[in-house]
Amino acid sequence: MVSRGEHKLVVWPAYFDSARTREQGRRVPKRYAVEKPTCDTLVAAAKVLKLQVVVEKDCAYPATPWKREGRLIVTKTGPKTAVLRRLGEQLRAVKEEKL
Predict the structure, then answer these.
(1) What ranges do the domains of the chain cover?
(2) Alpha-carbon gap, residue 65 to 59, rounded angstroms
(3) What is the pLDDT of residue 1?
(4) Which residues partner with 29 through β-bridges?
(5) Of 10, 12, 24, 66, which has the maximum CB count within 10 A?
(6) What CATH superfamily classification does 8-98 receive?
(7) Does position 41 have pLDDT exceeding 90, yes or no?
């Protein structure tokens, strides 16, 4: 249940997929996108940013209903575009650490 004054954002891994175009659902510039993002790497990036996160693993991005990639529900800490860019920056750092 969302309490009064608390807003949530839905964040899909597709928003950060460098293989997708803007028309296909990527929401961040290429410099903030990564190859094959997952919910787990997004959660790691969100934890670095100290965002409150709820993971829903069995959800499919509406444009690709056959892929159950999951999604995150994140507490809003500013404009959605700003939150997505901060997540993208951290996601790149998390992906580079795993290499």
Answers:
(1) 8-98
(2) 8
(3) 46
(4) none
(5) 12
(6) Signal recognition particle, SRP19-like subunit (3.30.56.30)
(7) yes
